[in-house]
Specification:
The longest helix has 16 residues. The protein has four helices and two strands. The radius of gyration is 17 Å and the shape is elongated. The protein is mostly helical. The chain has a two-stranded antiparallel sheet with strand order 1-2.
Length: 96
């Protein structure tokens, strides 16, 4: 048996936290953050948003790119430390 990647997808929260936002909260600067981390903004989920809210659209985009249907997928791997809930697993939610 072989596995292959035939499509990729992504989805991120709408809410953005920029370095300028952080400058207003703590004693830092855009230049200090960028030179040490390369980060200029980060995305943050809202309290009501769950991992599967982003995983499912990402998977749908990957399926569109691949040209295959979800029924043809033989395995779902979802590795995270930020699951939606203890049970069922986020992978089960994404699979559904």
């Amino acid at each position: 048996m072989r596995a292959r990647i035939v499509g990729t997808g992504m989805s991120v929260p709408e809410k953005r936290l920029t370095n300028a936002d952080l400058e207003a909260l703590v004693d830092t600067s855009d230049e200090w953050i960028k030179t040490r981390t390369g980060i200029s903004e980060r995305r943050m989920s809202e309290k009501h948003e769950k991992l599967s809210d982003f995983a499912v659209p990402a998977v749908q985009r990957a399926l569109e790119m691949s040209g295959i249907s979800g029924r043809q997928v033989q395995m779902v791997i979802c590795a995270t430390v930020t699951s939606d809930m203890p049970f069922p697993s986020t992978a089960c939610i994404v699979q559904d």
